[in-house]
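Pilot study result, target chain (298 residues):
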Amino acid sequence: MSFKTIQSYFKFTKEQRTGIFFLFLVIVVMQLVCFFVDFSAVSKEYPEKQKWLSLQSEMDSLIMDAKNSKPKIYLFNPNFITDYKGYKLGMSVQEIDRLLAFRKENKYVNSPKEFQNVTKVSDSLLHVMAPYFKFPDWVNNKKYNTKFKEYTSYQNQAFAKKEKIVLIDINQATKEDLVKIYGIGDAISIRILKQKELLGGFVSMEQMKEVWGLSPEVIENLNTHFKVSIVPDFKKIDINNASLKELAQFYYFRYSLAKEIVTYRSMKGNIKNIEDLTKIKGFPVDKANLIGLYLDFN
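Predicted structure:
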């Protein structure tokens, strides 16, 4: 391509040169406008929108805190651990069942080592759970408790001839009488009195085992100071005429057992004695003698 050919492309008429000039001028003006003029949109602020945005940010921060935080575990007595709590702490079903079977024998674990011996949990799991164990005060003060027993025994021997311990009827005992027993405070004494009120009265000191929080040692102390002199005069449950609701409200009966009793009566007639009741499905046979004292079979 020759120079003359190229030069021919740049030959314009007067009108073309004028158009090119104005086009160039428009471009320059547009560039200057873009450079000096702020075209950003003026945003309107709405108070309600700002309020919702602030609330949203707070919610987001709370959600993040909840995800990052670990659930707090409170101290508890491992003797009364529930299935759900044991599962959450990492115990297997078999380990929980071993503890429940042990407790059904009315036995207690008094240290992390005893807990491991009963449940067979691993050392690593015990290391995680043990810091949250809380045993009763009498367990933590075994040395003091032993000294107290020795001192009491010594005093009893020394003054056996001069003073004899007078046993108080447990149904006549007051809160002040109960708190004198080592290992019983205000809470447990109130619990014993409420249990007595619920039953209408105790018929045997064996019922102390049913009061939550009483250890075998404390029950032993109770037996040395209290007894059931006479069966209290309470209104007995007419087992053959009581309604389903009345039976279900009895302390030793559940609704399902009360229903079985009503069904038994309708099918086989009146219940003559406690032996008839023991034939009913779900009846607590081990407590039959106690329960019989609260019932009227006439």
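One observation from the pilot: The radius of gyration is 42 Å. A full batch analysis is planned for the follow-on phase.
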